[in-house]
Each structure stands twice: as structure tokens, then as C-alpha cells.
Amino acid sequence: MSPLQTPGQVFDAVQQAKAGATGFCTNFFPVELKLQAWIDHGELLVEQHDGAALFFRTDRDFRHFYFCAANPVALEQGMAAVPALKTERVTTDLVGNESTLKQLLPVLEQAGFRWYTQLQRLMRIGRPETGREGRVAGFAERPDCPAVLELIENSFDRYGEQLPLPYEMEAAVENRQVLAVKLDGELAGLLFFETQGLASTVRFWTVAEKFRAQRVGSALMQYYFQTQASVRRFTLWVDAKNENAIQKYRHYGYAPDGLIDHVLANEMIPA
Amino acid sequence: MKSVIEILKEIRPEFDFAASSDFIADGLLDSFDMVTLVSALDKNYGISIPGTDIVPEHFLNRETIEALLRKCGAQP
Fold first, then answer.
1. Mode of pairing for the β-strands spanning A233-239 and A114-125
2. Which of A28, A214, A255, B8 is most buried, most CB within 10 Å of its CB?
3. Is the predicted ipTM greater than 0.95, yes or no?
4. Start-end of H helices in A61-215
5. pTM of the prediction?
6. Residues A118, A238: contact at Cβ < 8 Å?
7. Is residue B26 part of a domain?
């Protein structure tokens, strides 16, 4: 695998996979800013084979796998030529509805991936009526970063839910994308979101165990809606098995919109 | 046959697509919506948009989508 030095190299590799494509397939939809950050931090690697560009992004103790291929056969052949898919911890994912994924899931399974978890997208249109909440939420500040990251890492699965790295956490706090409630000098809960124009996505919403049932979560959610006054569409991804979280999101008007994210992992990652 | 704007409205009724010149930057469409939109365009215009053309620059606004449709043999 070769490290990528510029976004141009990424686009060239994708373009080569597209050339002469008969059934182009991909799970790689990088946002340019994120792509640049991954390259700047030396996280992004590529393997190129006939008709396939295979990308690996280093994250903690494993790698995320993304692909662009001229067709499923090129993808299968490309993956068969990459030993890292068997010897390192690797995850990947496919987004779509059930029927659109039928073609690619067997190809990935053939390469050694197996089902790991499933995320479900929830959506709500417009802001809900927000009441006044006793707890005070505000934007997290730079000194909060380690505690924010620790709470995220303790609350979510690093293999299944694409957790931020420390530099991403700092950038998010700097860009006012993280809300926090602090009680007794401790971080009680957080809500990490990303807003693009009229759309906003909650990436993480969690309350530390010792502060649960104290209306910390509702304070965060209400403050989130208050600060995103111009947003028309709110989305998020949630573990499809996490009924408790889904029920809480439903309370705020979120509902499934039909999109599923199938997260797969190779056998180096414990099930 | 429906117009591009009518199809967009069916997919995302909450947004005013006619008022935007950059659907991506304005948050009106994301990469997942693009896949849904391609399927609706294929069906409406009786074409098959190649996977290689499902890139953000073809879905920036009504004009770029119509240019893509023409490239694929449709008459938007």
C-alpha cells in the first residue's frame, strides 16, 4: 500500500478505476476537507489494480477500507491481491437499501468480510418546538477535547461508528460543532453535529453514565435545535439494535428514512 | 414526463430547489440522495445513468443535472 500525498492522486486513482467501467461500484464518497485532513495526517493509503482503486484509512488499531471499481469482478480481483485484507484489522461499509446492496455484499464476503453491525438513518424535517430546559448546555471548548473524546470512545463502538480522532475532535470544537453540559466541573454529556447549509447531522449524542436520568440529554438536544435555526432537514445514523436510542430520537420527531449502512469487518476484528 | 425540479421535490419536498444554485453546498442533496435521484431520473427518462457519472459535479443544480440527462440521451 502506498501513502497518498495529494487529493489529486486520489482523484487520479478513482479516474483510472472509472476508465472503461462497465458496472462502476464504490463506497467512497469523500468530502474534500476530510480527504485533505486524512492526507495531511498520513492516514490514507492506496492499492491500485486493473480497474480497481482500493483505499485504506488508518484509524486507531484498524483500517477503514473504501473502493472504487470498474465492476464487481474487478473489485473481487483487486481485493484478492491485497494481503492486508487478511492480516490486518479492517472494516468497511455499504450504504443503500436492501436491494441495492445484494450485488456487492457477496463480493465483500468472498474477500473475508462478515456482517459486523447495521446502522439506520433517521430523519426529521424542520425544528421541533423546544421547551425550556433547566440544565444549561453550551459549546465545548478546547480544554474539553480530551474529556469529550473519552466520553465518545466509552459510549460508541470504534469499529462500527467512525469515531473522531483527536485532531478531528479539536477541529470540531474549534468549528463549534460540539455541545456540552458540565456538572460539578465534569463533562456530563455531549452532542456532536455537522451542519451543511440547510441540513444537519447528529454524529454523537451521549450522556456519561453517572449523569443519566438528570435531563442532560434533553438539554443538549433542545440547545442543538435552538442553535440550528435555519436547518430544514435533520439526520443521524444510529445502531439499528439500539432501541433505547431510537426511542429517544423518535421523541424528537426523527423517523427511519429507509437508508441502511451495513458495516462489515474482517476476521481479525472480534465479532 | 416530470421535470427535474418536480423529481427533486418528490425526493426532498422540504427544500426549495429553484432557489439554490448549489444543491450540495446548500445541504439540499447529499451523496445518498444522489443515488435515489439517479434511480428516479433513470425511471422517468427511460435511461441508465452510468455509475461513473454519479459524482457531485453533475448534481450541483438544475442545469448540471439537465446536462447530464442530455449526455445520457434524454430530452429534459
1. antiparallel
2. B8
3. no
4. 72-80, 84-87, 98-101, 105-110, 145-155, 166-174
5. 0.93
6. no
7. yes
